[in-house]
Write a structure and sequence with these properties.
By secondary structure, this protein is mainly alpha-helical. Helices cover about 60% and strands about 5% of the residues. The mean pLDDT is about 95.
Length: about 170
């Protein structure tokens, strides 16, 4: 099987993911306890639970790629979540540094809802990224509604910064 996305492309996407996750975490640390924990979304109960869910899914898919068990972790505060996510980001970076394009195409067995599936590692990593992007959009809406808007988190802003160009909408 060939990969639709190679290691270098995944690296670009994960660099972006780290950047905007840091921006999200910067915003979360400004919240009061109640803003962070109160029900704001019927699906995930609170900003805390939605952010923690996004983090947990990234951890899950990395563990599947590494074919390692996953210990439970439940960060209670934005600072704890930041520390855990920094550890996760380093683990993702270590994985990408060591993975070849061939490694990324090798199927991994994943169990979800009691059923067993197989996906190549690049698809699992891409799922983690896209999933986080989806939930950052939800979090952006929730945070904006309580007067804590996120900065522009479009990937083009990341590309502007990488190429030394100034984002025109500052």
């Amino acid at each position: 099987m060939t990969s639709a996305i190679n290691r270098e492309s995944l690296q670009v996407l994960y660099d972006y993911n780290v950047r905007v996750t840091d921006q999200l975490l910067d915003t979360l640390t400004q919240l009061t306890y109640n803003e962070y924990n109160e029900m704001r979304s019927p699906n995930y109960t609170s900003i805390r639970k939605l952010a923690t869910h996004s983090f947990a899914v990234e951890r899950f898919f990395l563990a599947q790629c590494r074919e390692q068990p996953l210990a439970a972790i439940n960060p209670a505060t934005p600072d704890e979540l930041r520390a855990a996510w920094q550890t996760l980001n380093q683990a993702i970076q270590d994985y990408l540094d060591s993975a070849s394009d061939d490694d990324l195409t090798r199927p991994r067995t994943v169990t979800m809802q009691g059923r067993v599936f197989e996906f190549p590692a690049w698809q699992l990593l891409t799922q983690a990224l896209v999933h986080s992007t989806h939930h950052r959009g939800e979090l952006a809406l929730m945070l904006g509604a309580i007067e804590h808007p996120l900065p522009t988190i479009d990937i083009i802003v990341h590309f502007f910064e990488q190429t030394g160009q100034e984002w025109p909408w500052k």
